[in-house]
Design a protein that fits this description.
Length: 297
């Protein structure tokens, strides 16, 4: 039997780690761990998964914040076929896999890569800027397994919402906007993707009125970069429960966003973005952010 461990680290994409039959896995924050979890609640050498004849057992290595199996503190305990582990404050989903399940997992990964390739090929063929923005947003929504979102673009020194899906125009007005302003501005300011799979567990997001009102369960914000210049961002989220955004998903999303940014920059060089956009003042990003009391975190 094989196994899979899905690590849900706050403010990061979920990390999937496969275990071969008989494999030993050291878990901790140190660089030399087999599975490194970069979180302050995790000890440098936190725990080990040790192989049994038919499965694994968890052995805590004297960690400061403890190891848990299905909510119970564990020093040395066999693992169930499926259950939740916790190392410090980091939750992990553990599941044993037979050969068929492992093959299905591998097939799902290949399918995800094929979907990303198809979306990238689609935007490579698009000339019209509005069609490019639509394809970029739809691609990000599908790859992140979300349900709604928008694209921000910088025009004449101002960020504007140039395209949106599953968000009514009135929902984009400053006082009513239900997306996470903080996530977008964090991605723009730091020029890195922002991922949150468990909104309730991310303090700076969970306390934002916009997130609470919308009941958001997961979000991704991808900056669109042209060298050192920030062109804008793609934001997607979902309210319904769903699978976590994994490190594989994030890698595919970042590569897709990089390609989309390349084409957006090219269209702008051809003056396709130089004319004033059709977006009205209600879709000016500064107005949206100011309506939420600014974007400090």
């Amino acid at each position: 039997m094989q196994a899979r461990l899905l690590v849900h680290t706050p403010l990061q994409a979920a990390t999937a780690r496969s275990l071969r039959a008989g494999e030993r896995l050291r878990i901790g924050r140190a660089e030399d761990c087999d599975l490194r979890i970069d979180h302050p609640s995790v000890s440098r050498a936190h725990a080990e998964l040790l192989p049994l004849e038919a499965g694994w057992r968890l052995c805590d290595l004297g960690s400061k914040n403890g190891s848990f199996v299905d909510g119970l503190r564990a020093q040395d305990a066999p693992l169930p076929n499926a259950g939740w582990l916790r190392f410090g404050d980091v939750h992990c989903e553990f599941r044993m896999l037979d050969a068929d399940q492992a093959a299905r997992d591998a097939g799902a990964h290949r399918e995800r890569r094929a979907v990303a390739t198809a979306h990238t090929a689609r935007i490579d063929r698009i000339e019209a800027i509005e069609a490019l923005l639509d394809a970029s947003l739809r691609g990000a929504i599908e790859l992140a397994q979300c349900e709604r979102g928008f694209v921000l673009l910088r025009e004449h020194g101002r960020l504007r919402v140039r395209h949106r899906l599953a968000l009514a125009p009135e929902a984009m007005r400053a006082a009513d906007f239900s997306g996470s302003v903080g996530a977008v501005d964090r991605a723009l300011d730091r020029r890195v993707a922002v991922v949150a799979n468990d909104i309730g567990g991310v303090e700076w997001l969970a306390r934002r009125a916009s997130v609470i009102a919308a009941g958001i369960s997961a979000l991704v914000c991808l900056p669109l970069l042209d060298g050192d210049e920030v062109l804008g961002a793609i934001y997607v989220d979902r309210v319904r429960p769903g699978p976590p955004v994994t490190d594989l998903d994030l890698a595919l999303l970042e590569a897709f966003a990089e390609r989309a940014a390349l084409w957006i920059a090219a269209r702008r060089m051809r003056a396709l973005l130089d004319a004033p956009s059709a977006a009205d003042d209600a879709l000016d990003w500064r107005g949206i952010a100011d309506g939420h009391g600014g974007t400090r975190w």
